[in-house]
Amino acid sequence: MPLFLPLHKNQMLMKTTPLFAVLTVASALAFTGCEKKPTVENAAPGAVTEAPVAKTKTFETIHVSAAIDAYVNAPSDDKAAAVDRALAELEGEIAELRERIAKASGDEHVEVGTKIQNLTEFHTKEKARYTAAKVGAAVGAVKEDADKAADTVKDGAADAADDAKDAAHDAKEAIKDAAHKTGDAVKEGAHDAKEAIKDAAKKTGETLDNAAEKAGEKIREVLP
């Protein structure tokens, strides 16, 4: 199964007058050339990060570079799909050129062969840049998830520490309250005991007085 799929738009482009095609491509390149090519910030070590310059510039090469630049700046599923479409369009252009070179000869054969080589090289480099961007986006997403998990654990530990602190404080207050209540109970018990002793002593004194009075009366009765 061939890697590249031909697209009708490339056939239309081939049929466009050379002057119009050159002017259109030149205008697009003048607009995009002023912008700084983005690189992959989170790419794996050794990965291709610089945006390549197409030796043969076409609408497809411009489309591929723009789509990958957009993905590098802000990765998303929609932008990834746009890159895939742009790469497929470039692959279609290369496939058409391969069909053309099979029928070409002389200078045309050399010219078409050079275009195929340049576009294939550009396709390889841009696909590598796109792959590096996807790796960087995946690493960034994993790191973000890890940071969120660490924050969650940190928050949970802080909450647990606060709960333990509150529990310790409550226990301390309960002990203090129990101690106060025990002290009050001891004081009340001592006071009650004191009052009981006083009451018993009073009653004992009254009993002794009564006994003494009765003894005195009996003595007086037996005296002449």
How are the elements arranged and paired?
Layout: H1 8-15, H2 18-33, H3 59-73, H4 77-101, H5 106-222
List keywords for this structure.
disordered N terminus; mainly alpha; about 220 residues; 5 helices; rod-shaped; single chain; about 80% helix
Number of helices: 5
List low-pLDDT spans: 1-37, 40-46
Main pleated-sheet profile: none
Q: Report the mean per-residue pLDDT as an integer.
A: 76
The assigned structural class equals mainly alpha
Beta-strand share of residues: under 5%
Characterize this entry briefly.
This protein is mainly alpha-helical and 224 residues long.
Characterization of the model:
The protein is mainly alpha-helical. Helices cover 81% and strands 0% of the residues. It is built from 5 helices and no strands. It is rod-shaped. The N terminus is likely disordered.
